[in-house]
Amino acid sequence: MNYKAIVIGASAGGMESISAILKKLPIDFTVPIIIVQHLSPKSKGYMVSYLNKSSELQVKEADEKEKLISGFVYIAPANYHLLIEDDETFSLTVGEKINYSRPSIDLLFETASDVYQDNLIGIILTGANNDGSLGLKKIKERGGLTIVEDPDTAMVNIMPKAAMGATEIDYILGVDNIAKIIMKLVGYKNERG
Q1: Per the residue annotation, which of 17, 38, 104, 106 is the catalytic one?
Q2: Is position 55 annotated as part of the catalytic site?
Q3: Is 177 left (phi over 0), alpha (psi -120 to 50) or beta?
Q4: Alpha carbon of 130 to those of 33, 51, 104, 156: distances in Å?
Q5: Considering 11, 104, 113, 133, which one is annotated as catalytic?
Q6: Is there a catalytic annotation at residue 38?
Q7: Hey, is 1 helix, strand or coil?
Q8: In this model, does residue 190 exceed pLDDT 70?
Q9: Residues 6+ apart with CB under 8 A from 187
Q10: Cα–Cα distance, 66 to 46 (Å, whole number)
Q11: How crowded is residue 94: how many other Cβ atoms within 10 Å of its Cβ?
Q12: Is the Cβ–Cβ distance between 146 and 167 less than 8 Å?
C-alpha cells in the first residue's frame, strides 16, 4: 500500500507516547505525520520544541493553507481545529469544541480520510475521553489502516478503548511497537535507535 499520510491523536499522557514513536523514525522518513494532542489553550509551542529534541524529523505547528510536505511532523496549534483540505493544505478553524476539545482528533481524522481514503494510517494513543474514535471509524470505512495503543500499556486507557469499541482495529500495540509497524507499512527495514 502506498500510504500518503499518518494521523495521530492523543490526550492525557500523549507527549511521552508521541515522543517514543517519533524518536524511532529516521530522518529520511517520507510520509507526513499530522498530530492532534489535546493541549491547554494557552500552550505556546512547547510541544514542538519538546518533540524536536527527540526526533530527527522536522516538527512544526501547522499553518493555515500550508501544503503537507514529506518528512515533516505537523502539530495542531493549541485552541484551533486542524483540517486537511482536498488540495492537501491545512485549514485552521476556531469552531465549537468537539468532545470538549479544540483541536479535535475526530475532525482531523475525518477530513484526512476524505482526502487520502485508503492511503491513510490513523493512530489513537493514550487519552481520557473518546475523541478520535469516530474519526478512526471513518478512516477504517474508507479503507485506511487503524492502529491503537494497547490499553493495557497506555498511561490512560479510555481513548484506546473507545476507539476499539467504535471500529475494527488493524493493530493494537504497545507504543514501542507502533514505530516498528509504521516503518514496515511504509517500506522501511529498520527503525532508528
Answers
A1: 38
A2: no
A3: alpha
A4: 21, 24, 11, 11
A5: 11
A6: yes
A7: coil
A8: no
A9: none
A10: 21
A11: 9
A12: yes
Q: What are the strands, taking DSSP E only, across 89-170?
A: 90-93, 120-124, 145-149
- Rounded to whole angstroms, how far apart are CA atoms 76 and 34? 8
- Joined together, the cell numbers standing for residue 85 give 483540505
Mean pLDDT, the chain, rounded, equals 92
67: which strand partners? Answer: 89
The pTM assigned to this predicted structure is: 0.95
Closest CA relative to residue 173, chosen from 17, 12, 14, 9 = 17
DSSP helix/strand/coil, 165: helix
SS3 23: coil
Catalytic one of 55, 101, 106, 131: 131
Q: pLDDT digit string (tens) for 112-171?
A: 999 999 999 999 999 999 999 999 999 999 999 999 999 999 999 999 999 999 999 999
